[in-house]
Amino acid sequence: MKRIMLIILSVAAVIAAKAQKVYSVDRASYADVKVYVVDRESYADLLVYKVDRESYAGNNDGKWFFVDRESYAKKKIYFVNRESEADLKIFFVDRESYAGWKNSSKKSLMY
Hints:
Elements: H1 2-17, E1 21-24, E2 33-37, E3 46-50, E4 63-66, E5 75-79, E6 88-92, E7 100-101
Parallel strand pairs: 1-4, 1-5, 2-5, 2-6, 3-4, 3-6
Antiparallel strand pairs: 3-7
């Protein structure tokens, strides 16, 4: 019984570690990725859907869960005001099924 519980907990830890958990930092120098929110889906590198539970977050597929502590995040992002300063351009979508990469060459930024 203990062995089964250990296996279950290990699998759950691996799944949680792969979740696309992000934290919005207040300085560009603290960020892993600088992000600009575009006003049209066609301008985006990534279509992002904000999930409301950590367990719903994806694995680099545009389903983001915003954590409340930096230490819980897989990626720290900073929202820039100018498109030219951004590493990644995103557009927030209102349906989970719309989330995903439009420019797969930028995919490595969120690993």
